[in-house]
Amino acid sequence: MSVATTTVAVTRGAEGFPRRAFTVDDIRRMIDVGLIGEEEKFELIEGEIVPMQAKSVAHDRVKNALTLALARAVAPGLYVGIEATVQLARDILVEPDLCVISQSVYDADPKSFAQPRAEDVLLLIEVAVTSTAYDRKVKARLYARHGIREYWVIDATERLTIVHKEPVGDGWSSVVTHPAETTLACVAIPGFTFRIADMG
């Protein structure tokens, strides 16, 4: 007796059952035909569509202050991306809260997604209120694997910043937690500093 097989990629859900794994091309087609609205917020994490939650005041307060600080410091040829869609692989689309990224990444097909090389991204920042575990585990692993040089997770509730540097495989050689009073800086962005305590 023959057993039917499938060539469709699958992922495995928390309950152990296989699920259809999607690619970035699948997402693009779903947007094109209207199955996914362009205003919908989600990420594609290794083939799984992960809906994103609405942002709270605590989240947006930190994100907006960071946006101003970064915009004042970035050099010509760079963008400060705010929830910019970034394609890391054929099955990974992420929307970091903030990223400092080379403008040349956007010299591409207007219907495609930004596909930066590791050297195109100077800094990625996630601001967390309810997503701290997701940002510190899932996102940190993905960003390390794809060679992102520096990644910050800012816990807007606890007023802590976890700075990840020196990616190695699926991890980081340096992970340091800073209190709100620490003046944060990024070597790749001269002139940029940020201190959560200054927000009051």
Index terms:
disordered N terminus; 3 helices; about 20% helix; globular; single chain; about 200 residues; 6-stranded mixed beta sheet; two-stranded antiparallel ribbon; alpha+beta
Describe this structure in words.
The chain is α+β, with helices and mostly antiparallel strands and 200 residues long. It is built from three helices and 14 strands. It has helices spanning 24-32, 57-73, 132-145, and strands spanning 10-12, 18-20, 42-45, 48-51, 78-82, 86-89, 92-94, 98-102, 121-128, 150-155, 160-168, 171-178, 184-185, 193-194. The strands form five sheets. A six-stranded mixed β-sheet has the order 5-8-9-10-11-12. The chain has a two-stranded antiparallel sheet with strand order 1-2. It has a two-stranded antiparallel sheet with strand order 3-4. A hairpin with a 2-residue loop joins strand 11 (160-168) and strand 12 (171-178). The longest helix has 17 residues, at 57-73. The protein is globular. The chain starts with 9 loop residues before the first strand and ends in a 6-residue tail after the last strand.
